[in-house]
Write a structure and sequence with these properties.
Layout lengths: L4 H4 L10 H11 L5 E3 L10 H12 L12 H15 L8 E4 L1 H13 L5 E6 L5 H7 L3 E6 L10 H7 L3 E7 L11 H13 L3 E5 L24 E6 H4 L8 E4 L2 H12 L7 H12 L2 H23 L5 E2 L7 E5 L7 H12 L1 E5 L10 E5 L4 H21 L1
Parallel strand pairs: 1-11, 3-4, 3-5, 5-6, 6-7
Antiparallel strand pairs: 2-8, 7-8, 9-10, 10-12, 11-12
């Protein structure tokens, strides 16, 4: 018997590009210490006060079926948070709670795309984007952003790919590049989306990690509320990656259909997780700023080190918990550089090629170890890059 083609072809014609990450984990399993600068996992885990709230909720008996759209109090709080930060009227009827941002991406594409529809997304991209689109039967179509332009998408390039497409997925602040899409970029995207009658899926899970400029949610732009699905999550803002608690903010009729999708797939998020999520959001913006602050500080540390040499170039890193570094001056691909760095110095980074061909010749450094360890690793990385140029 054959497996479903939709599942067996999620990665397209290649692998998922995470071979270096797997190699680093195998090295660790074999007993070799590795400095991991790979995935976006906080080095400080979920705050104990949030875990206490989760534990108390579970112990009180909140372990049965929860409301599938999400408990009203959590939906109300998400809606109030979105409205306060964007100025856009938002109610619980616009909100569905999801098992994290990844499930939200999957559900959003189910809501907007039919079998065979072309679904656009920006390259470089978070590694699951193409597979998520294939998983709903749509056809992933990358639109390249340019390193020379700080990986800001070019609305003209999106417009070229837009005829016949059904949706566009964007991510600002961006993983992997750290780009925060400015007003000119966002207004251009909104114009293209409306001219070509596209749905816009806006992945905003890094909205609390903005280091330069404002965060612009495209749902707030004229004519965009009725065609935007905004994705959020507690994973990055509250260091709750394993709790799997996110949301979609969408027009009310879309939310109604998403509730039907949830009923027939995941059947909602555990009640005690939602209770912890509600507690976490009620801790307020000061708590979110405390979770974000180490990445702001470490971003400055990396940029200062890069500024002291001429071989490696840093993409501006305006947001998120990563620094994208251009290592093309070494003459190596991101994969070649990453594997050589791992084998010689036991430092693991993500090759740019893991995130699409627009990031070829780059590496992504996750700012997810303590300052001293990060400083030592990046200094070693830069010295390694310099030696590659001298050896060429």
């Amino acid at each position: 018997m054959q497996q479903s083609r939709r599942i067996s072809t999620l990665n397209g014609d290649g692998d998922d590009g995470w071979g270096l990450f797997i190699a680093a984990r195998e090295m660790i399993a074999a007993g070799t210490p590795v400095t991991e600068l790979t995935i976006g996992e906080h080095d400080v885990r979920t705050d104990p006060v949030i875990l206490d709230a989760m534990h108390a909720s579970a112990r009180s008996g909140n372990t049965g079926y929860a409301m599938i759209p999400g408990i009203d109090a959590l939906r109300d709080t998400v809606a109030a948070r979105v409205q306060q930060r964007s100025g856009q009227k938002t109610t619980r009827d616009n909100v569905i709670i999801t098992p994290g941002g990844q499930a939200a991406l999957f559900m959003a594409h189910h809501a907007t795309c039919d079998e065979g529809d072309r679904a656009l997304f920006i390259d470089p991209y978070y590694a699951t984007y193409p597979g998520t689109i294939r998983a709903v039967g749509a056809v992933p179509v990358p639109v390249k952003a340019r390193s020379a332009h700080g990986f800001q998408p070019d609305p003209k390039e999106i417009a070229k790919a837009a005829p016949g497409a059904k949706s566009l997925l964007i991510n600002s602040p961006n993983n992997p590049t750290g780009a925060v899409y400015g007003a000119e970029t966002m207004n251009g995207i909104a114009r293209v989306v409306q001219e070509h009658d596209l749905w816009l899926i806006s992945d905003e899970v890094y909205d609390t990690q903005v280091w330069e400029g404002p965060h612009i949610s495209p749902r707030t732009l004229p004519g965009m509320e009725e065609r935007t699905l905004q994705i959020g999550s507690l994973s990055k803002s509250h260091a709750m990656t394993g709790s799997r608690c996110g949301w979609i903010v969408a027009p009310e009729d879309v939310t109604e259909n998403l509730i039907q999708l949830a009923t027939n797939t995941n059947y909602g998020v555990a009640g005690f997780v939602q209770a912890a999520g509600l507690f976490a959001l009620e801790l307020g913006e000061d708590f979110e700023a405390r979770i974000a602050e180490p990445f702001r500080r470490r971003r400055g540390l990396v940029l200062d080190l890069v500024a002291q040499q001429q071989i490696v170039r840093a993409i501006p890193a305006q947001g998120a918990m990563y620094a994208m570094l251009d290592i093309r001056a070494t003459g190596m691909t991101g994969e070649e550089f990453g594997f050589a760095l791992l084998n010689k110095h036991h430092i693991a980074v993500m090759p740019g090629e893991s995130f699409g061909q627009a990031a070829a010749g780059h590496i992504r450094v996750a700012l997810t170890v303590d300052d001293d360890r990060l400083r030592e690793a990046v200094a070693t990385l830069l010295d390694f890059a310099s030696k590659q140029v001298k050896a060429a």
